[in-house]
Amino acid sequence: MPQTSNPYIGSYDDLRELRLLHYIFSLPHLDSIRNNPQAVINEIDKFSETTELHLMTIGPQKGGMLSKLIAERKPSTVIELGGFVGYSAIMLGDALRAAGGERYFSLELNPVNAAVANLLIDLAGLGDLVTIHIAPSQKTIAKFVKDNVIDHVEFMLIDHWKDRYLPDLWLLESLGLFKPGVTVLAADNCLKPGAPGYLEYVRASPAEKNVQLKEKYTFSEDVLTGTDLVKAIKEDREGVELECVPGDPSYVYETEIFKFEMRPGHFDGVEVTKVVGKE
């Protein structure tokens, strides 16, 4: 996601997200792309490539790889952290629907981006599948637990603020939302701008993760974790710490980075992590 001084968190200073919306809905062939997810994706790509207003979407290369992974895994629910203008929700939502999936939850902090995404998702004909939740990611995750929306994560795209990658992973671990043999996490932008703390953690053994949690990071002494945290959330207690909760290092991961040349000489990577066990 772009980092600027703009008061609209997650927006570019030139508000190119809104300019994208004007571009799409001014197309003379608008009706021909309606209810056609790939056609909408193509127009977003064309805007980004030809107007000099580059959009930090996952793009066709990374999106294609993730779509194939969804086709293989066939999750019923996909969750993404960071929705931006709806590009990934349209591309991966289309793959999810083709694989027989039922729900795509997009967690987005910026209400302007969410409004743009909602219009484009509806245009693509995926409004019945994709739901956007506007709030900090950790609060929406907690609400999902409180309201019994999910009891485990099947497939998650992590593509929001890079400094939230690791804390949100810890929260998901502590809430017991990972299921060995089922849960897959895909973290974007792991080469540029990079997510070193996240990569160090998911690539570590349970013993190494335990050391990291004890020696590298600082947590509040009275922070709730595990079943105590789940109970506090379900009881809707006030003031429950969600932003920085120690994770559960006992999860065993298999992880691999997939590298892509986004443009000549510029590379990025998606770290795909599978939960394979629990010690």
Automatic annotation (TrEMBL):
Keyword S-adenosyl-L-methionine attached: yes
Pfam families per record: Methyltransf_3 (PF01596)
UniProt-listed Enzyme Commission number(s): 2.1.1.6
Enzyme class at the top of the EC tree: transferase
Single Gene Ontology BP annotation: methylation
Domain of life: Eukaryota
Protein's UniProt keywords contain Methyltransferase: yes
Residues spanning the signal sequence: none
One example GO MF annotation: O-methyltransferase activity
Keywords attached to this entry: Catecholamine metabolism, Methyltransferase, S-adenosyl-L-methionine, Transferase
Family of this protein: Belongs to the class I-like SAM-binding methyltransferase superfamily. Cation-dependent O-methyltransferase family.
Protein name as annotated: catechol O-methyltransferase
Organism: Talaromyces atroroseus
